[in-house]
UniProtKB/TrEMBL annotation:
GO terms, biological process: heparan sulfate proteoglycan biosynthetic process
Species in which this protein is naturally found: Rotaria magnacalcarata
Family label: Belongs to the glycosyltransferase 47 family.
Residues covered by the Exostosin GT47 domain: 358-655
GO molecular function (one): glycosyltransferase activity
Transmembrane segments: none
One Pfam family of this chain: Exostosin_GT47
Stored InterPro entries: Exostosin, Exostosin_GT47
Entry protein name: Exostosin GT47 domain-containing protein
Length: 746
């Protein structure tokens, strides 16, 4: 229904909706009305009269549902003094307003929730109105509150059990006893999330329970009116504004009249009793004027709905702050809940890929580092088999509705490297790209969006997919993804081991992926850089073997790769080629450098194409007990917020490459300096390890999980830091940080 026109009767059949403007209201406070008629029975014909706030700040959408007493119509709130005071206070506090009225001018407050036809029809009408009116206008759902007067208070408490009401203000009547006391049978985790997370609660009631996609879902029965179970929203916090009772009770005057016959009237004559009847009739008919004459406008019984309204609204604001802090506390004190789609469900229309056996050992060793695509999926499947066990503060949730993150299982890298792209010509590569885009990856992502609703569990439409994670090990190799495919990934958190800070690159820089027409999709501070899979086994006795290993080292710097990889002036390869030329011609540096009496070969540059990837070379350097030298400004390294890379690497701007040799010569106590760097490197070694290995089995290599590298989730390995990064990303989303908004708060 989302996006349909409210005024189109055919779209809304069998219900009729019309929108009318009230010309008597100023433009900035313009009201509209929608009419919902599910049947010919006028008892179930409703008017929704609403006014959107012009004071919405910081995307803080709050909507107050107003429910009046017997005999009232929606327009009364805008016409009479009491209603105008309520409306004025709501406007000043930035609330949008929705009044709901029945054509019969009465609500059914006597039938229990499950069998209350009127409650069900208003519930469904609100779902439609929220999606086709409010969401269409603002592209987000508002937090909901109820203000009820008299009978509206009673019905409001019923309505609050089938909608995500954050708080309710009840006036004159304390509410429906059963609605305020019946316990919800939602699981505790579900209740906690509904109460503390308005974004989730709104998504559940207005998207999941409303959308046709879920009508066959196994957990559809959790929605209101879908079963006989008490699947009710928990009782929201309630402000009972009922300190005054009686038809006319006021302060300091305490005037009360009786509508019945006190015992004393029994002694009256018939004429006196008739006069008393007339008196009572006139008081009941004109009690508004009567009470205001006696008590003053703000203290009369019928004016209680507006009494202390500002204090009640201030209470709501403080309540919202408390709820947010409790949500953060709950999030930080429990494991991160993970759920992963089954490959069968999201690749069912790509049978060729679904039937393919994923075996990274069948691909060249050159590409084994990309097998982290497989490792993370395998690790999460191991979590699935023990749903009650938390590892690395991650836990598999059997109920996908409760997941913090949804993992999209993809084998894109495997299918790409399976074709041995380095052996293909341009025409063959284009065919591979077409098959991987339209035949596999685009279908997979569309199935995630079309078959499930979890990606829309976000605060605004612009953030759809922000609670989803996918492993794309090397974004530099997926520049072949079509734009329509990349659009589906725009908010998905990508786990990769190559990333760049695009904001510090020259606008004239070429695409780092090598595909000129394809945007780089890595988002610094949003996507997560992880280490590739390597057999990194640093010598744990580095201190004992240091003297021997240091004495054996003959070169100061070493570089191995092709140095004509890029022609751009910013390229480190280009600067290295200049340096190699200068060394060969002895223009600036000698081929040897002496430090503290020891002679080193200054630099060895192996200018040849080697079967090592860029991401792998850092870790091979570590493996050799050498200090990695990073010749780039814009590289993003794994787990930067947790690991101080400066403590065990050397980083130089490529424009200062030639000065690097002189700077090393100036280091005091060079040997101790290098030793401390290596020891720091060793202390972080686990962060770059995956709990997997290749072993020989039945005469061939196989990927296997290595428990001793995980220690039941206590080892600070790559998965440990990925879990920390994901937790931080989620926390940033709670505070309103997105893929385009970052700050020091991170």
């Amino acid at each position: 229904m989302l996006g349909s026109k409210c005024s189109n009767n055919e779209d809304m059949n069998p219900m009729f909706i019309a929108i009318l403007n009230d010309p008597s209201v100023k433009e900035q406070n313009k009201t509209n009305s929608s009419y919902y008629r599910f049947t010919n029975d006028t008892r179930y014909h409703y008017e929704f009269k609403y006014e959107f706030s012009s004071e919405i700040k910081n995307n803080d959408h709050r909507l107050m549902i107003l429910l009046n007493g017997r005999g009232r119509i929606c327009a009364d709130y805008w016409k009479f003094a009491v209603g105008r005071r309520i409306i004025s206070a709501l406007r000043a506090s930035g609330f949008s307003i929705l009044t709901i009225c029945s054509e019969s001018r009465i609500f059914d407050i006597y039938t229990p929730i499950q069998s209350n036809i009127e409650l069900k029809m208003i519930y469904e009408s609100i779902q439609i109105w929220i999606n086709t009116v409010y969401y269409r206008r603002f592209q987000c759902y508002p937090r909901l509150y109820i203000h009820g007067i008299s009978m509206g208070s009673v019905f409001g408490t019923l309505l609050s059990r089938v909608l995500p009401i954050q708080a309710q203000i009840l006036c004159i009547h304390v509410g429906h006893d059963a609605a305020l006391t019946t316990r919800s049978i939602y699981p505790n985790d579900m209740q906690t999330r509904l109460v503390l997370d308005p974004t989730y609660a709104n998504w559940f009631y207005f998207d999941f329970c409303y959308n046709d996609k879920t009508k066959s879902a196994h957990n559809r029965g959790l929605c209101p009116f879908q079963s006989d179970a008490n699947h009710f929203y928990t009782v929201p916090p309630t402000c009972d504004n009922n300190e005054q009772r009686g038809t006319c009770r006021c302060t300091p005057v305490n005037f009360t009249y009786w509508e019945g016959f006190p015992d004393i009237t029994c002694t009256w004559t018939n004429e006196q009793q008739a006069q008393h009847h007339d008196y009572i009739r006139d008081v009941k008919k004109f009690r508004g004027t009567f009470c205001e004459d006696i008590c003053g406008d703000l203290f009369t019984y019928h004016a209680m709905g507006s009494r202390n309204i500002q204090k009640a609204l201030n209470w709501i604001t403080e309540l919202d702050k408390l709820r947010h802090s409790l949500k953060i506390k709950d999030y930080l004190t429990r494991p991160l809940r993970i759920w992963m789609y089954s490959k069968e469900s999201i690749t069912k229309d790509a049978k060729r890929f679904l039937s393919s056996k994923i075996d990274w050992t069948s691909i060249s060793k050159r590409y084994e580092i990309y097998s982290s695509e497989y490792h993370l999926q395998d690790y999460l499947n191991r979590l699935r088999s023990s749903t009650s066990v938390s590892r690395h503060n991650l836990i598999w949730t059997a109920e996908p509705l409760l997941a913090d993150y949804y993992i999209i299982p993809s084998n894109l890298m495997f299918f790409y490297f399976e074709t041995h792209p380095e052996t293909l010509n341009e025409t063959q590569l284009s065919s591979v790209y077409e098959r991987l885009n339209n035949g596999y990856f685009y279908k997979l992502l569309m199935n995630v969006h079309n078959m499930f609703l979890y990606s829309t569990m976000t605060s605004t439409a612009s953030l759809v997919g922000a609670n989803h994670v996918i492993v794309l090990p090397d974004i530099g190799h997926i520049g072949f993804l079509y734009n329509k495919t990349q659009q589906l990934l725009s908010n998905v958190i990508k786990l990769t081991f190559t990333g760049t800070k695009q904001n510090i690159l020259s606008p004239a820089s070429k695409s780092l992926s090598g595909y000129e027409d394809t945007p780089v999709i890595f988002k610094y501070g949003y996507d997560i850089v992880m280490p590739p899979f390597t057999k990194l086994e640093l010598n744990q006795n580095v201190s004992l073997n240091w003297n021997m290993s240091f004495s054996q080292k003959k070169r100061l710097f070493y570089f191995a790769d092709t140095i004509n990889h890029s022609s751009t002036i910013q390229s480190a390869y280009k600067h290295l080629s200049f340096l190699k030329r200068d060394l060969q011609q002895k223009k600036q540096y000698n081929k040897t450098t002496e430090i503290k009496g020891k002679l080193y070969e200054t630099i060895s540059i192996m200018s040849e194409l080697i079967l090592l990837s860029y991401g792998r070379r850092i870790y091979d350097t570590m493996q050799l007990g050498a200090i990695p030298v990073l010749l780039t400004d814009n590289i993003v390294l794994p787990f930067e917020r947790f690991i101080d890379w400066r403590s065990f690497t050397i980083k130089r701007n490529i424009n200062h490459l030639k000065g690097m040799i002189d700077s090393v010569k100036r280091i005091n106590q060079f040997e101790n300096y290098a030793k401390l760097k290596i020891e720091k490197l060793k202390s972080h070694a686990n962060a770059f390890q995956w709990p997997y290995d290749y072993i020989k089995r039945d005469g061939r290599d196989k990927h296997v999980f290595v428990p001793k590298k995980d220690l039941k989730g206590s080892a600070k390995n790559a998965i440990h830091y990925i879990a920390l990064e994901l937790r931080c990303r989620r926390l940033e989303q709670f505070y309103g940080l997105t893929s385009d908004i970052f700050s020091a708060q991170s």
